[in-house]
Write a structure and sequence with these properties.
2 domains, mainly alpha, 65% helix, disordered C terminus
């Protein structure tokens, strides 16, 4: 902790920033007072995990109205902390409806250059290179685009990595 205190305003990764401000330590100790102060860091404040922990700390400190507002701000998100926020608000956790993509969306996925290049690598039995080319465009896709890419992969017999290892 002393090392982090010496870093003052140095740019850090989010995990290092969290440690510097001792949020993780406060979470582990369930020190809600410290969490209220420490989860206001600007680069962490909008992350669902820290919104949740800040709200939990506020609730523990007796500020249930503000805590409820914060839980509500992330309760509509289908992620771990969004679902925990639903529980805190007494709401029922539901599974979202199955997303069905259109043929046009699948055709858009098929037109992604990285996917075509990956197919060429797979055809040459260069699985690692094929996987890299396939994965690169995935990092910027929306959930809907990822589903379309998966449908395209399924229809074009792109084997999963576990199958590549056989």
């Amino acid at each position: 902790m002393d090392w982090y205190r010496l870093s003052v305003n140095a740019p850090l990764s989010n995990p290092a920033y969290e440690w510097r401000h001792a949020q993780r330590v406060a979470c582990r100790r369930l020190d809600h007072g410290a969490l209220v102060d420490r989860t206001n860091a600007p680069n962490l404040r909008n992350q669902p995990a820290w919104v949740y922990w800040h709200a939990r700390a506020l609730k523990q400190a007796g500020d249930t109205a503000t805590a409820a507002q914060e839980f509500t701000s992330i309760a509509d998100q289908f992620n771990f902390y969004g679902q925990l926020a639903c529980e805190e608000l007494g709401q029922k956790i539901t599974v979202p409806q199955r997303t069905v993509v259109t043929d046009a969306e699948i055709a858009q996925a098929q037109a992604v250059p990285g996917f075509a290049l990956s197919q060429k690598f797979y055809a040459m039995n260069l699985r690692l290179e094929g996987n890299r080319e396939w994965n690169w465009p995935l990092r910027t896709m929306t959930d809907r685009q990822l589903i379309a890419a998966a449908q395209y992969a399924s229809g074009s017999n792109v084997r999963s990595r576990s199958e590549h290892r056989r």
